[in-house]
Amino acid sequence: MKNLTYIISLWLSYFGAVGQHNSLTDSLKNMLTQPMPDTSKVLILDQLGRSLMYSQPVEAMKYAQEGLKLANQSNYNKGKARVLNRIGSILRISGNYTKSLESHLASIKVAQESQDRDALARTYNNIGILYSEQKNHVQAIEYYQKTRKLAEELKDDNLKNIALANIGMDYSFLNQLDSALFYTQIAYQMSKEGKGGDLNVNLVNLGNIYKRMGKDEIALRYYKNSIPKSITAENHRALSQTYLDIAEIFRKLNRSDSTIFYAQNALQLAQDANIIPTVVNASYLLSSVYESINKARAFDYLKMAWVAKDSILSIDKVKNFQKVEFNEQLRQQEIKQAEQAYQNRVKVYAMASVLVVFFVVLLLLYRNIRLKQKANALLQHQRDEINLQRNKAEEALTQLRSTQSQLIQKEKLASLGELTAGIAHEIQNPLNFVNNFSELSVDLVSELLEERNKVYGERDEELEKDLLNDLAQNQEKINLHGKRASSIVKGMLEHSRQSTGERELTDINQLADEYLRLAYHGFRAKDKDGSVTQFNAEYELITDRNLPKIEVVPQEIGRVLLNLINNAFYAVNVGSINVGSVLNAADVGYSPKVVVSTQVVDNHVEIRVKDNGIGMSEATKSKIFQPFFTTKPTGEGTGLGLSLAYYIVTKGHGGTIECESIEGEGTTFRVELPIK
């Protein structure tokens, strides 16, 4: 009998809570009876839907749909966007997530067309809640971020605070507690500064996050700071849950007296405010504490939890029945709409039949016209064919004239592709340093934050200084290697950039060093063709440290160096293959090597590229600077590289380029560029 009385009291409290919005609902209904513009009426119907959607979703939907109809009739897009958003929320509460999303997306479309950013922000927030209820917290966070961005543009601190709090909450659901803490702390700080939101809610949320992180002392501090504000606001729901969270922490710490004190306060408030889930959880907690102290009281609390749990199931049944009823009414509306659509289709078909007859007549007329046009078209086609053949002949001539310039351009572009692997190798080293020191810096910051979070007096200031010094050194190293990677990228961009033809003071030593390394790594990457032994060769740069900077076009001289060095590596690679085809290269003492050297000779800068490869015959050497002449197999060279190099050095820079070669021993290319 006692249990039955308690269940009845819970039911009466539940349905009494539904009536809390009656005064607002009656006031809005009375306003509808007064004369007013249609735009104002749409907004009142939206507010009626909002006040009823949790207690009477069917009636709420009726008012929202009436508002949508009126907004369409009056072409009031601002009201239309809000009512569509409201319909989406009502559908979400009723469990119809698909229709809810469709309504919200329709609201977004109207808001975007009318540039109503406030409606757009609130709809994004509701879509986030929709995804959150479906446990899709990642998608929910994306929409909360959109709300936050628009709120910042609108300078709406309250809406921004709501979005930040929601983001923090969903990150906690994902158990990404660092992110949850970051956003919740921002919302909390805004609330402290009076910039919207609910300070008490943010305090409780921070307590919940720290509780999940296992930082019980910090969690207790936030929970206790929220208690006076909940008492002042008479927010029994938040207060009872806070008491329960504190009790659970004390239970974890094996402090039975404190656990019982806060759990009993939570239970009493939850009973007074009819917060049945909290009644269940508090009763179970008290039962577990008293189990080893007073088994009779433990059993009483256990019975109380059972009774409250039964009442939740009964209330859920009522809610489920309301959802079924609501969805059935929606289904009936869809049937009516389908019938109306069918009647419209019948009318369309009738009109289509008339149009078909009309088009048949037009088709017959068109056919007669086409027959007359065909005779003229045949004659015109013959004239067009003659003109086409003449144009083809002219195009062939133009194509022939442009072939040479295209081949030259292709040779220039080909050099960029050969450098790709070299660039990747060169830039990987500084990037590895950046990544390693960045990871180390994150660990140092974590240690520093852990030390600074200690109680004053327990902090090791000497350790903090060491950590800060280490962090500063790491940042200097990251900056150093970042600049190194940046210089590599800058150099490659300059190589790939179309030459302007303008000369500038250039360090030839640096240019030679850069292209020697990149050519080697590029050649090794190009040689990865599945062969048994990958290409390897020694290379050396011998520079004159007193070499002056000279005015040249860097991109052009870079292409010359790249071509000469690539040819040298090709020659020593062929030499390795030829020796290896007879016997092991090491057995005959052959070690492939390329040497690049610079020096000043008679007011000229001399660049030498020397290899110990296969060399050339005198007949071959006499033709190497001729366009389209190549000693490489078909498909491996265009024969334009050395001719372009010759043109750049002699015609473009007033220098000389010569070749010395002995067949079977090696080749040396000598480039001289005037200092002035």
Automatic annotation (TrEMBL):
InterPro entries: HATPase_C_sf, HATPase_dom, His_kinase_dom, HisK_dim/P_dom, HisK_dim/P_sf, Sig_transdc_His_kin-like_C, TPR-like_helical_dom_sf, TPR_rpt. Gene3D superfamilies: 1.10.287.130, Histidine kinase-like ATPase, C-terminal domain, Tetratricopeptide repeat domain. Its EC number is 2.7.13.3. SUPFAM superfamilies: ATPase domain of HSP90 chaperone/DNA topoisomerase II/histidine kinase, Homodimeric domain of signal transducing histidine kinase, TPR-like. It is an enzyme of class 2 (transferase). PROSITE patterns: HIS_KIN, TPR. SMART domains: HATPase_c (SM00387), HisKA (SM00388), TPR (SM00028). The chain crosses the membrane at residues 348-366. Pfam families: HATPase_c, TPR_12, TPR_7. CDD domains: HisKA. TPR repeats lie at residues 121-154. Residues 422-676 form the Histidine kinase domain. This is histidine kinase.
